Automatic annotation (TrEMBL):
SUPFAM superfamilies: Isocitrate/Isopropylmalate dehydrogenase-like. GO terms for molecular function: 3-isopropylmalate dehydrogenase activity; magnesium ion binding; NAD binding. Keywords: Amino-acid biosynthesis, Branched-chain amino acid biosynthesis, Cytoplasm, Leucine biosynthesis, Magnesium, Manganese, Metal-binding, NAD, Oxidoreductase. Gene3D superfamilies: Isopropylmalate Dehydrogenase. The keyword tRNA-binding does not apply. This is 3-isopropylmalate dehydrogenase. The keyword Phosphoprotein does not apply. Mg(2+) binds at residues 218, 242, 246. Substrate binds at residues 91, 101, 129, 218. It is found in: Cytoplasm. Its EC number is 1.1.1.85. The gene is leuB. GO terms for cellular component: cytosol.
Length: 347
């Protein structure tokens, strides 16, 4: 089993290094690793954020562990050369359309949540975010209006096949959990959302055991902080899912805690923390590596058939937190590698 490790930029290499230590300690037989440059690091070395050899490795690998991309020194580049194009390119090239972003409260962190303890303790939800469509991948550009003003545009579109396949992913996830699915859209305004809602209702006929509800995204943002315990699985589009998952991360204590899986139709996946390259703390060994370590656990479970090893990682993270291990984002002072040490000790 080949795992591609793509550390990327900023804190990406710092957090993937800790996940790699945990994977090495598990010593799963038959696992091999190859690393490659991606994002700003790849741009500086090769002139492209997603060089052909990196894409080739990602295609050959059984799974991909990804750090983060984003480099302020690349901000003035044309869009096609910016680091973020690398992660968008991987998602599109590998048809990773189903992005699972679980937000579950570790009880030890209930006081780190921005929510009151009794509300935070009830959080155990999964955001299923569509990852190959929406305003991210529509036609975009810059033009002039008739009276000479600069006008930027990004076309938002979804076709019914795109909505259907993510709806099936979400209904199946709900079946495997508590049987509740909330579809989040903006059907009161957007044509894409009206289609989204219609197709989700059609797909629901195949899953009579799942209780389906619908919510507008503005209300969903409010409900996520008012009463997040009401949610089991949330299914939503690419842009809404991006925003709601960062919000959900603070409800469970920190953006440094939220892992993710981006899956194709056959279970191949890219695994990454939901956070970015965090230029404000990069190189200072302050980053919380737990989101990446938990992403490695998701990788073992979903793409590599190693559920027991995944359980061991998740139990070790819980034990490290119970023992008081905290990086700065969680109100503590452990360095990135000291948090890695704490997880290894718990393993
Ligand atoms: N998948 C990805 O690679 C990805 C995801 C999000 C943002 N980005 C990119 O990252 C760059 C920075 O974006 P941003 O600042 O908006 O978002 P960010 O997630 O990088 O950081 C937001 C805030 O959260 C903090 N933070 C993030 N991860 C943390 C961790 N593990 N431990 C402790 N604190 C953490 C940061 O210090 C910062 O204050 C941009 O170039 C952006 O495009 C990439
Ligand atoms: C870096 C960016 C393209 C990416 C996204 O918007 O999907 C990030 O915010 C994420 O959440 O993975
Ligand atoms: Mg995001």
């Amino acid at each position: 089993m080949l795992v591609a490790i793509l550390p990327g930029d900023g804190i990406g290499p710092e957090v993937t290094a800790q996940a790699r230590r945990v994977l090495d300690a598990l010593a799963v037989p038959g696992m091999t690793y190859e690393s490659a440059l991606v994002g700003g690091a790849a741009y500086h070395a090769t002139g492209h954020p997603l060089p052909p050899e990196t894409l080739d490795l990602a295609k050959r690998a059984d799974a991909i562990l990804f750090g983060a991309v984003g480099d302020p020194t690349c901000d003035s580049l044309e869009r096609a050369l910016r680091p973020e194009q690398a992660i968008l390119g991987l998602r599109k090239e590998l048809t990773l359309f189903s992005n699972l972003r679980p937000a579950k409260m570790f009880p030890e962190l209930a006081d780190d949540s921005t929510l009151r303890r009794e509300i935070a303790e009830a959080i155990d939800l999964l955001i299923v975010r569509e990852l190959n469509g929406d305003v991210y991948f529509g036609e975009k550009g810059m033009r002039r209006t008739a009276d000479g003003l600069r006008e930027g545009y990004d076309i938002m579109s979804y076709n019914e096949a795109e909505v259907r396949r993510i709806a099936h992913s979400a209904f199946k996830a709900a079946q495997a959990r508590r049987g509740k699915l909330c579809s989040v859209d903006k059907a009161n305004v957007l044509e894409t959302s009206q289609l989204w809602r219609d197709v989700v209702i059609e797909v629901a006929a195949d899953y009579p055991d799942v209780a389906l509800s619908h919510m507008y995204v503005d209300n969903a943002a409010m409900q996520l902080v008012r009463n997040p315990g009401q949610f089991d699985v949330i299914v939503t589009g690419n842009l809404f899912g991006d925003i709601l998952s960062d919000q959900a991360s603070m409800c469970v204590g920190s953006i440094g805690m939220l892992a993710s899986a981006s899956l194709d139709a056959n279970g191949k996946g890219l695994y990454e923390p939901i956070h970015g390259s965090a230029p404000d703390i990069a190189g200072q060994s302050k980053a919380n590596p737990l989101a990446t370590i938990l992403s490695a656990a998701m990788m073992l479970r979903f793409s590599l058939g190693q559920a027991e090893a995944a359980d061991r990682i998740e139990a070790a993270v819980a034990k490290a937190l119970a023992g008081g291990a905290r990086t700065a984002d969680l109100g503590g002072s452990l360095s990135t590698s000291a948090m890695g040490d704490a997880v290894l000790a718990a393993l």
